[in-house]
Design a protein that fits this description.
Blueprint: H1 3-20, H2 24-38, H3 53-67, H4 82-106, H5 116-131, H6 134-151, H7 158-164, H8 166-182, H9 188-200, E1 203-204, E2 209-210, E3 215-217, E4 223-224, E5 229-230, E6 235-237, E7 241-243, E8 261-262, E9 267-268, E10 273-275, E11 280-281, E12 286-287, E13 292-293, E14 302-303, H10 319-322
Parallel strand pairs: 1-4, 2-5, 3-6, 4-7, 5-8, 6-9, 7-10, 8-11, 9-12, 10-13, 12-14
Length: 326
């Protein structure tokens, strides 16, 4: 039986089922409608203007083209057309980002009851200030590229880092989102950072503060919380968590320093966990993999956990040894 015959048979079965139970769809619709009334947290109705996630991702891509000219184009980037190239992308970003920020402001408690003209003016001011930060963003990202090249002997050249390294994608997205976060833009920075998270497996909250020469090696599973502070020349590996000690108080912790501070020239190896707003990792510290830290570490220290004892045996596994294998 080929694919077409299978699909026809499936369609026929559906028609027979509906003929035998003509009211089933109506009943299901009624049940779903009732759930909208009883479980309203995941429901958003009667909201006139909504953020467009696909447009925000397009804005991110246009920003990446400006920040890394020539890397994310289909054709060769020629110097004589560079001004046109930058102007066209800035025009796109200005128009669409202003609209999206106006929607975000209008839908938030920050501007509840504000007139439309006031919201649009504020959005225009934010976008103007944000775009003025592009030279600074490029300065920081150049240090991040250099840190990746200096810190990874597997890096063949700078092009490989820009085109291939998920860490740089996550960092560049973070730096864009962080500027918008500083300017008081609601929700949009999180949408951007979660897009990078979904692409790279690296979760950097846009509220974190990260200095120059930041290098993420491999990166999958990294979590950097909202109030984390990271100095310069910091290198972290996959599976590192810079998080909060406890979230039992929930919203009662909003606005407090919940995540650690990492000073300059720190290396944190894979699987390490550093928790707590009062935890400070001093300058020039090396944190070994699979460590769990909830207290501050002075400068110039090396921190490691005792390695688990390993057992070895020759030949085939005995029944006694198999008892310990799951």
């Amino acid at each position: 039986m080929d694919r077409q015959e299978i699909e026809q048979g499936f369609d026929e079965a559906i028609r027979r089922r509906d003929a035998l139970n003509p009211h089933r769809i109506t009943e299901l619709v009624d049940q779903v409608m009732e759930s909208y009334e009883t479980h309203s947290l995941g429901t958003r109705l009667e909201q006139e203007q909504l953020l467009n996630r696909s447009v925000l991702i397009q804005i991110l891509e246009k920003m990446r083209q400006i920040l890394f000219p020539g890397y994310f184009e289909d054709n060769r980037m020629r110097k004589e057309f560079l001004r046109y190239f930058v102007g066209e992308r800035l025009e796109f970003i200005t128009y669409h980002l202003t609209r999206q920020i106006a929607v975000a402001l209008g839908n938030s408690d920050l501007c509840e009851g504000c007139e439309r003209s006031v919201i649009i003016k504020r959005a225009e001011e934010i976008v103007s200030t944000f775009l003025s930060k592009i030279p600074t963003l490029r300065e920081y990202l150049e240090t991040d590229i250099q840190a990746a090249f200096d810190g990874d002997p597997a890096a063949f050249n700078f092009e490989e880092i820009v085109l291939c390294y998920p860490g740089l994608m996550a960092i560049s997205t973070y730096r864009i989102a962080h500027e918008l976060q500083i300017l008081g833009v609601p929700l949009i920075p999180r949408i951007m950072s979660e897009h990078a998270h979904s692409r790279t497996g690296i979760d950097i909250h846009p509220g974190a503060t990260i200095g120059k020469y930041f290098f993420i090696d491999h990166g999958t599973g990294i979590v950097i919380g909202e109030t984390t502070e990271i100095g310069e020349h910091v290198k972290i590996y996959q599976g590192v968590t810079l998080g909060g000690l406890s979230t039992r108080k929930g919203q009662g912790l909003k606005g407090t320093k919940r995540h650690p501070t990492i000073r300059d020239n720190v290396t944190i190896y894979a699987g390490a966990t550093v928790l707590g707003g009062e935890t400070v990792i001093g300058k020039n510290v090396t944190v070994a993999g699979n460590t769990f830290i909830v207290r501050s570490i002075p400068d110039d220290m090396r921190v490691s956990a005792r390695a688990p004892e390993l057992e070895y045996s020759h030949g085939r596994r005995s029944d006694e040894f198999m008892d310990y294998i799951i």
